[in-house]
C-alpha cells in the first residue's frame, strides 16, 4: 500500500464526506451561478468550506455601536486568497478583487465598490495577528484531520524568512539554563514563550550545503506524510534549529500520534532523541560529523536510512510555501504580523495537501 493510499484510508470520514460534497454538490451549484471555475477557484472554495466552521465569529462580531463593520470572515477569506494566489501585497489583493468577479463574490463582496479600502484591511489584519486567528484555525484543522490517525513519519526543519524591517539592536536574552535540558519538563506554551522572536540576523546552510545569511525570522515546521504540516513556530532568525525541535514535537502530539521523528544532523542532540522516545516515537537523526571531529558520521542501518529518505517532504513543503504561498513576499513588520502572514500560507497548504490525498 502506498503512503498516499494509507494516509487516505486513515483520514476522518468527515473530511471524506466534505470532499464528496464539494465534488458532487457545491461545485456544480457555484458553477451554475458563477460559470466554470478553474482549479484555483475550486481549491479556494475547499479552503473556505474548511475554514468557516473554525472561524471565531463571536470574537469578531459587531458590537452594535456605530456603523456595522465589514464582516471579518469576508476579509479573512480575502487574505486566504492572497496566500493561495501568492499576491505580493494587500494593495495587489485589493486590485485583484476588483478585477476578478468570481474571486470577489466568493469572498463575499458583490460589487467592486464593496471591497474595503487598504486601511480597513490593515485594521482587520492587526486584529487577526493579535488573536493569532490563522494559527488557531490551522491547529484546529490539523487536529480534526489527524483525529485518531497515527502519523507514520514526522519531519522537522526550518526555512529562512527574509524581512524588510530593521534588525533589533540588542541581542536576544539568553535563557537561564540550556534550553534542551529545561524544555522536556515544561509545557509547550512555556517553551515557545521563551524563544526569541525579534527580527535579527540568521545563518544557515541550505539544502545544497551553501551558507546563507539573512535578516528576518525563521519558520520551524513539522510535516507529516503527504507533505501535510502539523505544527509551526516562528522565531528570530538567529535561533538554532535544535532549540525548537522539542516544542514542535509537543505541539504535534497535542493533535496526533507520531511513530517516527525524522530530523537532519543539525538536530543531533541526545535530549531531542530522549524526548522523542519519551513520547513513544522513534527518533531518526544522523550523527553530525562535526561533533565527532570526522569527515563522515556513522552510516544508518538500512531500514532507518530508507525511512529517513521520507524527510524530503519537509523540504518540498518549504519550497512550496516560499515559491507559491507567500514565504518570499513578507511585507509586514513585527513577529505577530509575520507569523500571521506565514500561517495563512501554512493553512492553505494544509488544506490543499489533505484534499490532495482524497483525489
Word description of this protein:
- With 359 residues, this protein is of the alpha/beta class.
- It has 2 domains: 3-134, no CATH class; 150-329, no CATH class.
- Helices cover 50% and strands 14% of the residues.
- Strands 1, 2, 3, 4, 5 and 6 form a 6-stranded mixed sheet that branches.
- The longest helix is centred in the last third of the chain and has 23 residues, at 335-357.
Indicate the low-confidence ranges by residue numbers: 1-10
Series of H and E elements = HHHHHHHHEHHEEEHEHEHHHH
Report the structural category.
alpha/beta
Strand composition percent: 5-15%
* Helix run count: 16
Mean pLDDT over the residues = 87
End-to-end Cα distance: 16 Å
Overall radius of gyration: 21 Å
- What is the makeup of the main sheet? 6 strands, mixed
Give the helix proportion (percent range): 40-55%
**What global shape is seen?**
globular
Number of strands: 6
- Into how many domains do the coordinates divide? 2
Short description:
This protein is an alpha/beta fold.
Features:
single chain; 359 residues; alpha/beta; 2 domains; six-stranded mixed beta sheet; 14% strand; globular; disordered N terminus
Please write out the topology:
Layout: H1 3-10, H2 13-34, H3 39-51, H4 72-85, H5 90-99, H6 101-107, H7 118-131, H8 133-145, E1 150-162, H9 179-182, H10 188-194, E2 200-205, E3 211-224, E4 228-236, H11 242-253, E5 257-262, H12 270-278, E6 282-284, H13 289-292, H14 302-308, H15 312-324, H16 335-357
Parallel strand pairs: 1-5, 5-6
Antiparallel strand pairs: 1-3, 2-3, 3-4
Amino acid at each position: 500500500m502506498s503512503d498516499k493510499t494509507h494516509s487516505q484510508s486513515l483520514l476522518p470520514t468527515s473530511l471524506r464526506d466534505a470532499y464528496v460534497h464539494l465534488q458532487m454538490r457545491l461545485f456544480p451549484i457555484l458553477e451554475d451561478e458563477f460559470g466554470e471555475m478553474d482549479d484555483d477557484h475550486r481549491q479556494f472554495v475547499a479552503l473556505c468550506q474548511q475554514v468557516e466552521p473554525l472561524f471565531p465569529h463571536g470574537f469578531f462580531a459587531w458590537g452594535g455601536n456605530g456603523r456595522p463593520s465589514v464582516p471579518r470572515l469576508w476579509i479573512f477569506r480575502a487574505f486566504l486568497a492572497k496566500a493561495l494566489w501568492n499576491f505580493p501585497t494587500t494593495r495587489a489583493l485589493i486590485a485583484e478583487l476588483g478585477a476578478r468577479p468570481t474571486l470577489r463574490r466568493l469572498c463575499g463582496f458583490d460589487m467592486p465598490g464593496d471591497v474595503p479600502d487598504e486601511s480597513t484591511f490593515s485594521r482587520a489584519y492587526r486584529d487577526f495577528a493579535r488573536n493569532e486567528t490563522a494559527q488557531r484555525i490551522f491547529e484546529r484543522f490539523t487536529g480534526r484531520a489527524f483525529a485518531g490517525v497515527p502519523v507514520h513519519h514526522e519531519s522537522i526543519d526550518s526555512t529562512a524568512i527574509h524581512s524588510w524591517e530593521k534588525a533589533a539592536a540588542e541581542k536576544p536574552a539568553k535563557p537561564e539554563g540550556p534550553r534542551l535540558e529545561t524544555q522536556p519538563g515544561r509545557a509547550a506554551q512555556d517553551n515557545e514563550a521563551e524563544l526569541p522572536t525579534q527580527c535579527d540576523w540568521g545563518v544557515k546552510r541550505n539544502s545544497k550545503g551553501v551558507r546563507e545569511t539573512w535578516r528576518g525570522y525563521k519558520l520551524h515546521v513539522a510535516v507529516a506524510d503527504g507533505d501535510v504540516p502539523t505544527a509551526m513556530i516562528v522565531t528570530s532568525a538567529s535561533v538554532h534549529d535544535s532549540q525548537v525541535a522539542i516544542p514542535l514535537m509537543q505541539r504535534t502530539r497535542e493533535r496526533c500520534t507520531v511513530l517516527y521523528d525524522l530530523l537532519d544532523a543539525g538536530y543531533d542532540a541526545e535530549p531531542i532523541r530522549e524526548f522523542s522516545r519519551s513520547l513513544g516515537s522513534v527518533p531518526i537523526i544522523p550523527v553530525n560529523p562535526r561533533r565527532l571531529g570526522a569527515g563522515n558520521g556513522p552510516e544508518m542501518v538500512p531500514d532507518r536510512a530508507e525511512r529517513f529518505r521520507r524527510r524530503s517532504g519537509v523540504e518540498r513543503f518549504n519550497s512550496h510555501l516560499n515559491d507559491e504561498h507567500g514565504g518570499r513576499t513578507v511585507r509586514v513588520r513585527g513577529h505577530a504580523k509575520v507569523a500571521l502572514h506565514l500561517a495563512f500560507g501554512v493553512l492553505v497548504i494544509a488544506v490543499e495537501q489533505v484534499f490532495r490525498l482524497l483525489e
